[in-house]
Design brief:
The chain is α+β, with helices and mostly antiparallel strands. It contains three helices and ten strands. The strands form two sheets. Strands 1, 2, 4, 7 and 10 form a five-stranded mixed sheet that branches. Strands 3-9-8-5-6 form a five-stranded mixed sheet.
């Protein structure tokens, strides 16, 4: 094993700038190690902030073509394109300013921010395939849930 020797004279001759750079490097390194080794993940959102999830199949149309979600909570839609037709290569959410490519036979997750009640259209890039994201208040979301017309549930598997 090789010995590591430190010349104290060299350390003493470092200027203030060199010490600050060395201290910054050690601090960043320690911070990265602590972050990786702490095992903590991002804070779990409160119930009102948990993402609502739905799967949408794409094969000649969107299935389902009407997705009901609760207002004021983020939405996570997973699109799965079961075809190679050029029309369905992307999905457009004009109200959210989003255009997302949909490769064939792969899940594509689209996260949308919370919004107020209303209807938000989504279409293919040519406008031939159409669907709606329908944002409703909590009472209406419960009613749709009871009628089984809500395609969305909270992360974690509990029904909306």
């Amino acid at each position: 094993m090789d010995k590591i020797t430190v010349n104290l004279g060299t350390l003493a001759s470092l200027g203030v700038l060199e010490w600050l750079i060395a201290l910054a490097g050690v601090s960043v390194t320690a911070g990265v190690w602590i972050w990786f080794l702490s095992g903590r993940t991002h804070a779990r959102p409160r119930n009102s902030e948990q993402a609502q999830e739905a799967r949408v199949r794409v094969k000649g149309r969107y299935m389902p073509d009407r997705v009901f979600v609760e207002a004021g909570r983020p939405v996570r839609l997973t699109f799965f394109r079961e075809e190679t037709a050029p029309c369905s290569e992307g999905v457009v959410f004009p109200d959210y300013g989003r255009h997302v490519s949909l490769p064939a036979y792969r899940d594509v997750v689209i996260e949308l921010p919370p919004s107020e009640p209303g209807e938000h259209e989504f279409t293919c890039q040519m406008g031939m395939l159409r669907g709606s994201l329908i944002v409703v208040g909590k009472d209406e979301a419960i009613r749709h849930s009871e009628n089984r017309t809500v395609a969305v549930h909270q992360s974690g598997g509990s029904a909306l």
